[in-house]
Amino acid sequence: MAEDRIDSFIKTGLLIVALTWFLFTFYQFTKSAFNIYKGTFWIELTDTAGVIGLGFRTVAGFIAVITILFFIFRKDLSKPEIMMSIRWIVLCEAVCFLSLFLVVIWGLDILVNYGLSDFGLTFFIGSTLPVLFESLAIPFALVMLFLALNPNKPPSSAVKWSLIVGTFYIFMVWFNNATGWIVAVLGKGIDYVLLYPANIFSFVLTTIGLLLLGIYAAYFTKKSVNTGQLEKIDLRKVGMIVTFLSLYFLIIYIMWLLLGSIGGWSDWYAWFLGHNVELWMMALPLVGVPLLFKKRSK
């Protein structure tokens, strides 16, 4: 496959992925904005903060779509203009994840009042722990990337923090979905997994498969941070990581479409289908697969 055709597929894939990200996030934003629960102080507060965060992510998605459209159909976008657009996207993403921190404060309040009761433990595992990582580690890495995306700074810093952000996102996906399964097991019992081969597969793919992917991404990042230039990164391995990440979402979702809620509805399905704002990642093979054929620059 010629390099120009691969580049064309990558550009088209980027546009479709960005459009999917924007539309899915816009849907989540509007749905959440009209369904803020006003029954209790903490739920109303965290729901409102989450809606604001999704609003910032919606803006990020819109900027991404417009930037890629200009990049594809207008060939005169300057490097500073592209850099500025990416910085705005990164900054909006950081605000989106930072808006979740109120959930951590709520979780600590629940821990103080309920201790490690069934409710306290479930909330701590299912919400407080994963959101702690989401609302602190992810924004920190994104802010560092924002600062690194400076025309006056060497590209090595931007490459380094781009790889770190990508790795953190994979661990975030693992953390969120693994704790979703753990909470389901706490509520339904271990038989909810062991009695159903499909649930065993889903549980192992989530808790072990995603973890291994995150570890490999961290290893790849460690080996690649000193390259100094994006052109020196092994994009085939990037494509492999991106494709495997997206396949996780595709496999789990298709299993649900074909088999339904195996063993009955649970917190796992409620999380994955109802609250998982990363389902747009199912579109990532449109970028990941073409990258598998991208030759490495000498």
List keywords for this structure.
79% helix, 11 helices, mainly alpha
Report on this structure.
With 298 residues, the chain is mainly alpha-helical. It has one domain (3-291). Helices cover 79% and strands 0% of the residues. The protein has 11 helices and no strands. Helix 4 (101-114) packs antiparallel against helix 5. The two termini are 18 Å apart.
Output mean pLDDT: 92
Structural category is mainly alpha
- Provide the number of structural domains: 1
Give the strand tally.
0
Helix run count: 11
Indicate the percent of residues in helices. Answer: over 70%
How far the N terminus sits from the C terminus, by CA atoms, comes to: 18 Å
User: Which of globular, elongated, flat, extended, rod-shaped describes the shape?
Assistant: globular
* Quaternary form: single chain
- The secondary-structure element order is HHHHHHHHHHH
What's the topology here?
Elements: H1 3-33, H2 41-73, H3 79-98, H4 101-114, H5 118-148, H6 155-188, H7 191-194, H8 197-224, H9 235-259, H10 267-275, H11 285-291
Helix pairs in contact: 1-2, 1-11, 2-3, 3-5, 4-5, 5-6, 6-8, 6-10, 8-9, 9-11
